[in-house]
Every structure is written in structure tokens, then in C-alpha cells.
Specification:
single chain; 306 residues; alpha+beta; four-stranded mixed beta sheet; 7 helices; globular; binds flavin-adenine dinucleotide
Amino acid sequence: MRVTAIQQDLNQTLRGEAVLGESLADFTTWRVGGPAARLYKPADLDDVRCFLRTLPVGEPLFWLGLGSNVLISDQGFTGTVILTQGRLTDLVLTKEASIRVEAGVSCAKMARFCARNQLSGGEFWAGIPGTMGGALRMNAGCFDGETWDRVVSVETITRSGEIRHRYPSEFQVSYRTVDGLGVDEWFVAAHCRLTPGSQAESMEKIKALLARRAATQPTGEYNCGSVFRNPPHGFAAQLIEACGLKGQRIGGAVVSPKHANFIVNEAGQASARDIQALIQYVADEVYRKHQVQLHREVHFFGDGYV
Ligand SMILES: Cc1cc2nc3c(=O)[nH]c(=O)nc-3n(C[C@H](O)[C@H](O)[C@H](O)COP(=O)(O)OP(=O)(O)OC[C@H]3O[C@@H](n4cnc5c(N)ncnc54)[C@H](O)[C@@H]3O)c2cc1C
């Protein structure tokens, strides 16, 4: 009944694309996960606002970017997923050295846009295979930069479709985590400030960064980047490797022989259950051998997770 009501509204007033029962696996870099009861691909920001207003009170809702930091359960999700990848893609230079970027723009595109506009400081985004919305939520970063170091303000949307302008001082931003969003509030855009630079130098930096990643990470395989956050004063990968866990497998999930903090879905044969079991096994082994409790960077979502 609820589905019918939403469908009617979608057909009459909305411009995005709604799909029922679509598998979410293809929208994640791990390529696992069951179906979403409803998946909505908005046409643009105005369209998301309208869509949110059509949702019944209490409808479970999840925002998915490029799915490069989530483990979606095999059961999927009996709620609605808003998919931003390839949507919410406005990207403009607002004034000298400042950019407004919407949540669905890929981090790689943002990095190249900064470089083309002779702006330095955005190169690190080139190596992050997510959206800018996901990067805001995770405070994504690497080598010499983190997302929130460049943020001047953000635009968020609430479940009632209200757009808010908010500032970094209103959030608690730390290593790979950001608190301060309301329960029913999501990022739709960021205003970032960079520094004047040279296109050639930025492109060179991006090339070097991507080469370094290809040499040290299993970039050609299905994975989700670093599974665990680095503990204070150490590296998760070193602790895992010291336990002899490289190559450890459960079903189709394998601890990457190239980078111990990566778990790969070998030949696409793993289930979310395999990956979850391997994550737990690795954390338990590291605790048993080093007495260090690793914490997940990857978010779990879907039915069956608490
Ligand atoms: C090969 C590889 C390398 C990686 N290297 C790095 C790295 O160097 N540094 C790093 O930080 N990360 C890295 N990652 C992890 C990942 O790319 C980042 O965390 C990225 O920011 C996630 O963006 P996403 O769009 O894929 O988010 P998703 O995986 O789609 O979502 C992640 C979380 O963000 C939430 N979210 C998504 N969009 C929004 C929104 N608009 N508003 C509010 N919440 C939202 C989701 O609900 C979910 O909880 C890597 C991943 C891979 C696969």
C-alpha cells in the first residue's frame, strides 16, 4: 500500500527515476548486497526536496553515494535508498579560489576541476573513489589532505525538504568521522576554498598519487578501501600483517595479499556475510595477538545489522 502511494506521487510530480526491488550490489565497490525495496535517483536538488516530502512518516531512508565505504547486507533494505552517484552533479567556481560542489560529484572529478581552474589543495580527492557527499560524511582524506580542511560551509537537507546552510564549527570533525548531522539530515553541497596554484603541478601531483595507490593497493579488485581505521600511534595494516593474515579467506572474501587492511571480494564470489565474518575474524585475531581493538571505518547498513 505504501509502495503504491509513493509510486503514484513519483509518476505525477517527480522527475527522478524510481526503481523497486533493485539489487544494491552494483552500486557498491564491494559488489555485494541485496535489494532495496525502493531506490530513488533524483533528477536534481529540487527534485530530492519534492521526493522527501512524498515519503511516509517513519519510512526507513538511506543515502548512498558511490558505495565505496559500505557493506550492505545480503538481505538488502526494506526501506528507501536515495542514490546520489551521477545525480546532484553541479560543480561551479563561485568566486576566486572558491567552489560550490554538489553531493553527487565524484571526488576524482572535483580534483580535476580544481586543477583545471589552477587551484591547488584538491589533488588528494583524485585517489578517493567516492562522491563528495560521502567524503563529507567520512571526512575522506589521504596523504596530505582531508575533506573538511577545505570546507567553508555546507548545505544540508532535512527530511521535510528544508535546505540548511551550516558551518564547520557546527560539526565535530575528526579522522574519518564527522558528527553533527541531525538524524534526518544529509549533505547536498559543500562550499570549498582552495589556494591559487598551477594546473601542471596539480596534474603531476595527481599522477604521482594514483601511481602510488596502484602500487600499494588492490585497485583492480572489488574492495572497499581500508576496512579499519588506524589506531592511535599505529597502522591497522601492520597489525593485521603481523598476525599473518594476508591471504586469509572466508568464502569469497580474502584479506588482500597486497594491502592487509583491504578485504577483496575475489572474482565477485563473496557474500556480505563472508566479508562480515572475515572482518570480525581479523579484529578478533588482532586483539588476541596485539591487545589492540580495531574499529571499522566501513559502514554496515541493511536488514540484519543492528
Ligand atoms: C580503493 C579504495 C580506496 C579508498 N581510499 C580512501 C582514502 O584514501 N581515504 C579515504 O578517506 N577513504 C578512502 N576510501 C573509502 C571511500 O572511498 C571514502 O570513504 C568515500 O568518501 C566514500 O564516499 P561514497 O560516496 O562512496 O560513500 P558511500 O560508501 O556511498 O557512503 C558512505 C557513508 O556516507 C553516507 N553518505 C553518502 N552520501 C551522503 C550524503 N550526501 N549525506 C550524508 N551522508 C552520506 C552513507 O549513508 C554512508 O553512511 C577508499 C575506498 C576504496 C574502494
